[in-house]
Amino acid sequence: MTGQKAPTALGTEKIGKLLMQYAVPAIIAMTASSLYNMVDSIFIGHGVGTMAISGLALTFPLMNLAAAFGSLVGVGASTLVSVKLGQKDYDTAQRILGNVLVLNIILGLAVTVVTLIFLDPILYFFGGSDETVKYAREYMQIILLGNVITHLYLGLNAVLRSSGHPQKAMYATIATVIINTILDPVFIYGFGWGIRGAAIATIIAQIISLMWQFKIFSNKDELLHFHRGIFRLRRKIVLDSLAIGMSPFLMNLAACFIVIVINQGLKRYGGDLSIGAFGIVNRLVFIFVMIVMGLNQGMQPIAGYNFGAQQYARVSRVLKLTIIFATVVTTTGFLMGMLVPDLVVSIFTSDEELIALAARGLRIVVMFFPIIGFQMVASNFFQSIGMASKAIFLSLTRQMLFLLPALIILPRFFGTAGVWYSMPVSDLLASLVALVMLVSQFRKFRKAEQQKAV
Q1: Which of left, alpha, beta for 175 (phi over 0: left; psi -120 to 50: alpha)?
Q2: Which of 15, 83, 198, 453 sits in a 20 to 30 Å window from 344, CA-based?
Q3: Eight-class DSSP state of 165
Q4: Where is the signal peptide (predicted)?
Q5: 431 is in which domain, residue-wise?
């Protein structure tokens, strides 16, 4: 039974081979998920219009908020599953699976109800105008109605990856992208549903993948599978999952808040079109960020398992390799943004003014991109080994400690350019903080290895 053999390989197999085995499916899955956000933007940009792109950009903070609650449960529980499998505690790992399901349903419903009630005021607060809010509302109403589906799909995929099935997790994500890409033009153009059609396509794609995940976890031959007795919420599992998941939750929450501040700044100094330009830049940069997140997801079970088994040399090795790969990825993004910004931006729109605004913004945003991969890996690493407080601190330094003050101060002197320049400035400062913390942790690992040798 391959499902039962996989976890032990995390402690014995070559680190490079393991990282490829776990990271490649996660990278493909993460790239695919960022592509289906892009697909929505491209079809909406060409099929509905320029203002619809700005309307879609208004929904980013809300989408981040939904992702924040999804990661609160999914990432925390999947890290816990890795550690428990490393400790051979299969009974607790089973209960974690059951708790993921119940928690996601509760959180998903709560977010849907609260957000739907206050949707219009929220969108105006996010920098919307009468011109753009109508598009954002149409899109978000559908997305929110399917929010429980999204939570379950993301949560179960995280557990699937951690329990030795990275490829199946990848297939689930790729399936959603392909189905979404096929349904988008049918619903937007064919049925004439506009921006609402893009949202319906997204939810239907997730429903189909969720049904497949249920089928996998209903298989009694799997190491982790649904059965009676695992669905009752356990206080310790819930609190441990939420504690570990708090880092990505706060990171997404901060991202949500930051995008609101960015949108408000762009609205004030540049108008609706500037928000649309940021929407395009965000989609493009997001691809490279998602690839690094895929690398992080590949690293997570390996680092978690070996940390649980006290094999610190292996933990250090997987971290170093992940940093190298992440730096290659973000440097590629830097080169794209510097050399061909107009070309990549024009994928989303044929509006000359919007292309010029977005191309200028992209060039600024990727200025320090080669080092941001390192900062992302460092933050995720602490989360992977269960050091929640360090992970939370690192997650928030870029967003709240550096980016927020920059967004408040720089636009007062430089207008719209100040909003754009805030992003690379905070990238640079946050990376320096991550370097200091990581060097300190490495010294502790080395000390622990030396004591083990004695």
Answers
A1: alpha
A2: 198
A3: -
A4: none
A5: 13-453
What is the b/e burial string over 218-234, where b = at least 16 CB atoms within 10 angstroms of the residue's CB? Answer: eeeebbbbbeeebeeee
| 335 Cβ contact partners less than 8 Å away, ≥ 6 residues apart | none
| Number of domains the chain is built from | 1
Neighbours of 451 (CB within 10 A): 8
Buried b (16+ CB within 10 A) or exposed e, 104-136: beebbeebbeebeeebeebbeebbbbeebbbbb
Q: Which two tokens stand for residue 356?
A: 């010029």
- The helix (run of H) or strand (run of E) holding residue 393 is helix 388-396
Place of tokens 């033009």: 185
> Is residue 412 a contact partner of residue 418, using CB atoms and an 8 Å limit?
yes
CA atoms within 13 A on the CB side of 58: 32
Nearest to 452 by CA among 317, 304, 311, 314: 311
446: part of which helix (H) or strand (E)? helix 416-453
CB atoms within 10 A of CB 91: 9
Inside any domain, residue 446: yes
- Nearest-Å Rg of the Cα atoms of the chain is 21
Residue 236 covered by a domain: yes
CB–CB of 120/39 below 8 Å? Answer: no
Whether 140 maps to a domain, the answer reads yes
Of 338, 394, 398, give the one whose Cα is nearest residue 363.
338
387: Cβ contacts below 8 Å, ≥ 6 apart? none
The three-state DSSP-derived secondary structure of 279-328 is HHHHHHHHHHHHHHHHHHHHHHHHHHHHHHCCCHHHHHHHHHHHHHHHHH
Question: Which residues touch 23 (CB under 8 Å, ≥6 apart)?
Answer: 294, 295, 297, 298, 299, 322, 325
Residues in the chain: 454
Judge whether 6 lies within some domain.
no
Question: Is the pTM value of this prediction over 0.90?
Answer: no
Token pair 């957000």: residue = 115
Of 103, 114, 434, 416, nearest in space to 274 by CA:
416
Q: Which two tokens stand for residue 144?
A: 């929110």
Distance CA 324, CA 146 (A): 38
DSSP code of residue 126: T
Reading the block at residue 250, the tokens are 């706060």
Mean pLDDT for each 10-residue chunk of the chain (454 residues)?
54 84 81 78 84 87 79 81 78 81 89 92 88 92 93 87 81 89 92 92 94 89 78 80 79 82 90 91 90 88 82 84 94 95 91 92 94 88 80 80 93 92 92 89 78 70
Could you identify the residue written with the tokens 């997305």?
A: 143
